Amino acid sequence: MSTVSVSVTVNGELRTHEVEPRVLLVHYLRDVLRLTGTHVGCDTSNCGACTVILDGAAVKSCTVLAVQARGGEITTIEGLAAPGEPFSAVQQGFHQEHGLQCGFCTPGMIMACTALLGENPDPTEHEIRHALEGNLCRCTGYQMIVNSVRWAAEHPDGIVPESSDAASSAPSTQGAGS
Amino acid sequence: MSLIGARVLRKEDPNLITGRGQFVDDITPAGTVVMAFVMSTEPHSRIVNIHSADALALPGVLAVWTAADIAELSTLGLPGLGRPLLATDVVRFVGEPVAVVVAETKYIAADAAQLVIVDYESMPAAPSITTALADGAPVLHSVLGGNTVFDQPFVDDLAADFAAAPHTASLHLVNNRCAAVPIEPNACLADWGPSGLTLWATFQAPHHLRNTVAAYFGIPQDTTRVITPDVGGGFGAKINFVPEYFLACALSRKLARPVKYTQTRSECQVLMYHGRAQEQDVDVAYDDDARLLALRVRVTQDQGAYPDPTGMGLPVLTTAMAAGCYKIPKVAISWRNVVTNTTPVAAYRGAGRPEASYLIERIVDLVADQSGIDPVEVRRRNFIPTDEFPYATHSPLAVYDSGNFAGAMTELLTLFDYDALKAEQARRRNTRDEKLIGIGFSSWLEIAAFGPPGSLEGFGHLGSWESVQIRVQPDGSAIIYTGASPHGQGTVTTFAQIAAGELGIPFDKISVRHGDTATVPQGIGTMGSRATAVGGEGVRTASVRVVERAKVIAAHILEADPADIVLEGDGFAVNGTPSHSVPWSEVAWKSFRPLEIPTDSEPGSLDITVFQQVPNFSFPSGAYCCTVEIDRGTGEIEITGMYLVDDCGTVINPLLAEGQVHGGVAQGIAQALYEGISYDENGLPQNSTLMDYLIPAATELPSYTDGRVNTPTPNNGLGAKGIGESGSVGAPPAVVNAVVDALSHLGVQHLDMPITPLAVWNVLEEAK
Amino acid sequence: MIPVSFDYVEATSVEHALALFAEHDDSKFLAGGHSLVPMMKLRLVSSSVLIDIGRITELSYIEDRGDHIAVGALTRHREVEGSSLLAEHLGLLAHVAGQVGDPQVRNRGTLGGSLVHGDPAADLPSAALALGASMVITGAGGTRVVPAAEFFVNFLETAVGDGELLTEIRFPKRTGDGWAYQKFNRRAMDYAIVAVAVQLGQNPGIALVNMGSTPHFASAASAALAAGSPASAVADVVVEGTEAWNDANATREYREHLARVLTIRALAQTGYTS
Fold first, then answer.
1. What is the model's pLDDT at position C274?
2. Does A39 share its domain with A98?
3. Residues of A at the C interface (Cβ-Cβ below 8 Å)?
4. Which residue in A has a C-alpha nearest to residue C39's C-alpha?
């Protein structure tokens, strides 16, 4: 069994490992780096639960070999907001607009939405739906995911306005919550 | 302050939106090894030989087991028709586990599984109800003689009533087999060490699993721990016992290593229990005014290869709910369960009730079509009047608690302009190629709040109650432990909302814990839209009892009579003199200090456990309308409107309630237009990946227009009925009625689900 | 979900890639991997050695060459979709690239990878056919140019032979000419059940997706278009020579009907009048 050396920058940190060439990027992230926020929901590149951002573009990490990402920069869900920092606008939007239920598709969904807003900061509902055509959610029926992205577009700094009637219970940083 | 009805944001979210959720596959104790199945590629074959030497020889492989290696492990399911953990002698569906391999990594396990070669001797297969019931059909289980597991005949088939009726309508309906497709496929991790067994599983009922696993292996429950961490969707498909749970435990015991199994999607599609898979023969008799006189329903339930207790119950629920929202003087029901060479069938969101609403709402539309009376009007003429509750139906299971069916319909018609849409529909029909419009209604009703004594015991559960324990902490915060085991429903939030109002403790200082048999007292689980109506009621009950006890301590501190103590501000006060008060934090602190509570009290009294029961099921209902446009060139169906009036009684959190409805409606639309597990005539599954099993994405589903009426249930103090399954019950008939309506001018009276563009095009071609 | 084990080598240039291929038995080229990796995960395809050509940056470009535009084989769909040069001169190509799969797939998949895979259900081959593209194939013996119409040989088989690489695709400019792409599927993410690519102008072309075992150039319909026949007459002959199959989504008859309907719609979209 041959191995290859893979060096990638993940969430700002350079990581180097010897891996089998066949190792999928998603398994490298989950099993080698123990970054388990990126999920696997299918084996045919349909569900998008494994979406991460590689060199600025959203990719399905189940369809990329780890070795193909050599030298690349990867952002996973764990890297969207630094420890102790507020959520990103998209994360906050998913919280504000109930864009998740079971939460399993959510990391991939959030990464795809983050990539969308990076290219198109003010997408219409139609554009949002098409940008998410490669991400499946079984819980929400998508309407509230669309609302979540619109919230993020309207609050690019991710800050919940004081007047928001739902804010009383909305933890605004990672430190809060249940 | 009561938070019931408030749009509170979820406590569950922060971990899940930061990648800090913990699903089973995320957990990897030291020494964990990986288990993988060798699955049958044959629908019905004798196993001649299994060659596992090459797999065993692969470096990193720890074990390869076949049925011969686990002869002492018993079967699952019904006695005499049990499902073996690994196929013995015969495989009965494609996907059935034949062997299991354990290896150091998932990569080696996948390689090893491929190296196991199974020699089969093919036998004829019966992959459908029709082939299983045909003369000379191959028999799956010789003990049955044929393929019918159970047949409940009509007590009275109402032949005389139908013969005498002015009009009748009949439909043969196929309720398509569906896969639940939680985005997290099944997964488990068993760690059987010297001190006991811990099993992590993505499951909806941890105590049920704990009790069953302990009994299965004959080990004590106290050293058997089941943890259901974050669960990535269940939809009913994660309340059934599957071989992997028991095999992982057995392998962990044998190998003295933690053993993890993580299903791939392709495996999940053929291994996780399917749902629906029902055929229905429905007849209705009605008079000149389209008033329903009699209903006759014969259900044939496809059980798949091995009947499951839940699967056997599906037609019971369907036939119990067959009359829907309507007052029908005579109802006759009958059902049978049939085994086929397919994946076993059990609960999928709604479990038996979507099938019921579908049959009654389809045939009511047919009555409207045949009688020329508007479908809304036909429904109005037959609704059970609001003043006739509780309403006893033909079934002892279904005594409707409350409802306002006409009110929901009235509310629905405020959400869009029905008359204008009908006029536009008529105009378009007269054009050559403009899109056809269809308008479909569904006045649906379902049975929820599985909680009355006896309602779940038949499915093997310990009881039908739900447990809630409230422990007030010394600082005045509170932790709620519950046997409800949510997987997306938002129970952590809604239970905290209910408790906050009753306890007078701020929402932010209430945590809800679940999914661990080592910490939660006992539990039943989350299914059958029961968490809020049973468990939530338990939170209310327990909260009231906690407050009663807290008042005794507050009275002691305030030197007053407990009867005069009221909740006030951030604690307690003497009624009428708010300034004479003590904060919760002080009451809580002192509740643990023997010298500061009444001498006849014990420390730690602010800790209450209840096993909540409810006296009856509740019956959520609603009125939905779906509007569609059909492309006459391609047959493409586009949903242009989805109008949803739900009546789940009291709403705890409208944001979460809408989320539940949307998700259920999405699955209902999917069943109607996109999804359906099919087998070819040889029994080979045709859609075992998400490339060919069409879960709709955001591009395929519409925006939803939400409406609401509220008819509280008298069965619990909250008035909440349950909402988890509503959308999946109400949506399919609305969508199908809309498509049939769009094509009704061509003589179309029914199309089976999923209605594909091809099916529509075939209709359009025939009409030419 | 997990590919069979293989060895991996990285090519730094076209010549290097070809040399590596000669050196290793049972090897395959890996470009973006969005056709190959899914098949390897399902263990439908395996190979002893993968030669990664994905880092040969010299094969990623979109160049104006006067009468045509040359696109490097490793140019990603996303770059094709977003190219202003292509938008101006080859609107059909840019648009069709934007119809492939979903955004994540378009971010990784390459034009050459998609064409060499030769999938009759894929979008981009139809654009290459309708646009009369020329495929530049490089092998040990040098370079040869194959017209798109001769490129798709069999099911999942193209004119690119063992030890050869598709290196460049040349598209004659179609500046200002009408075009349309009509794709019919049940989910946006899916392969087309049927799609029709139409390019008007001096050498008009119509190509069909998923109407047989190879991507299909509708020669009779293209000729009718060149002759200025009415749209209905063009549609009448569009399925000539196709051998569409039956599957869960469509019968052959339905596919042929869809091809005709989509052709008429595509022509209407371009504003075509006979």
1. 77
2. no
3. 1-2, 4, 20-22, 24, 40, 43-46, 48, 51, 57-60, 62-65, 67-68, 112, 115-116, 130-131, 133-135
4. A44
Domain that holds residue A112: 89-169
B/C interface, count of CB pairs below 8 Å: 55
- The Cα–Cα gap between A78 and B93 comes to 41
The CATH topology of domain B13-123+184-232+238-271 is Aldehyde Oxidoreductase; domain 3 (3.90.1170)
Q: How many residues does the structure list for chain A?
A: 178
CATH number, domain of A13, equals 3.10.20.30
Are A95 and A165 within one domain?
yes
Q: Assess contact for B31 and B257: CB atoms under 8 A.
A: yes
- Cis status, amide bond into B166, omega within 30 of 0: no
Find the mean pLDDT for residues B13-42.
98
Nearest to A22 among C6, C42, C107 (CB): C6
Q: What is the CATH topology of the domain spanning B274-450+616-767?
A: Aldehyde Oxidoreductase; domain 4 (3.30.365)
Pairing assessment for the beta strands C134-139 and C165-172 based on DSSP bridges: antiparallel
CATH of the domain at A115: 1.10.150.120
Q: Is residue A139 part of a domain?
A: yes
> Is A176 inside any structural domain?
no
Whether A165 contacts chain B with CB within 8 A: yes
Name residues 150-179 of chain B within 8 A of A (Cβ).
none
A100 to chain B, any CB pair closer than 8 A? The answer is yes
Q: What is the pLDDT of residue B80?
A: 87
Question: Which ranges in B23-154 belong to alpha helices (H)?
Answer: 53-57, 106-115, 129-133
The answer to whether residue A175 is domain-embedded is: no
pLDDT(C82) > 50: yes
Closest to C113 (Cα-Cα) out of C49, C179, C205, C50:
C50
Question: For B696, which residue in chain C has the nearest alpha carbon?
Answer: C187
Enumerate neighbours of C (3 or more CB pairs within 8 A): A, B
The Cα B656–Cα A98 span in angstroms is 7
Pairwise CB contact (< 8 Å): C104 & A116: no
Q: 3-class secondary structure for C195-240?
A: EEEEECCCCCEEEEECCCCCCEECHHHHHHHHCCCCHHHHHHCCCC
Domains, chain C, ranges and CATH? 7-52 (3.30.43.10), 57-172 (3.30.465.10), 179-270 (3.30.390.50)
pLDDT at B759 over 60: yes
Residues A47 and A117 in one domain: no
CA distance C252 to chain B (A): 11
User: Which pLDDT tens digit goes with each residue over B471-491?
Assistant: 999 999 999 999 999 999 999
Asked if A118 and A144 sit in the same domain, the reply is yes
Whole-angstrom Cα distance, residue C73 to residue C64? 15
B629 SS3 class = strand
Which of A78, A133, A177 has its CB closest to that of B19? A78
The answer to whether B19 contacts A104, with C-beta atoms less than 8 Å apart, is no
Quick: pLDDT tens for B328-386.
Answer: 999 999 999 999 999 999 999 999 999 999 999 999 999 999 999 999 999 999 999 99
CATH topology of domain B465-612: Aldehyde Oxidoreductase; domain 4 (3.30.365)
Would you say residue A177 lies in a domain?
Answer: no
Which of A56, A79, A102 finishes a domain? A79
Q: With a cut of 80, say whether residue A163 has pLDDT above it.
A: no
Number of domains chain A is built from:
2
Residue C34 with chain A: CB contacts under 8 Å = 45, 63
Q: Are residues A75 and A93 in the same domain?
A: no
Pairwise CB contact (< 8 Å): C102 & A2:
no
Say if the Cβ atoms of A68 and C3 lie within 8 Å. Answer: no
**A40 band by pLDDT with thresholds 50, 70 and 90:** very high
Q: Which residue of C has its CA nearest to A56?
A: C107
How many whole angstroms separate alpha carbon B568 and alpha carbon B655?
A: 28
* Residue among C38, C50, C188 minimizing CB distance to A130: C188
Helix ranges, B624-725 (H): 654-673
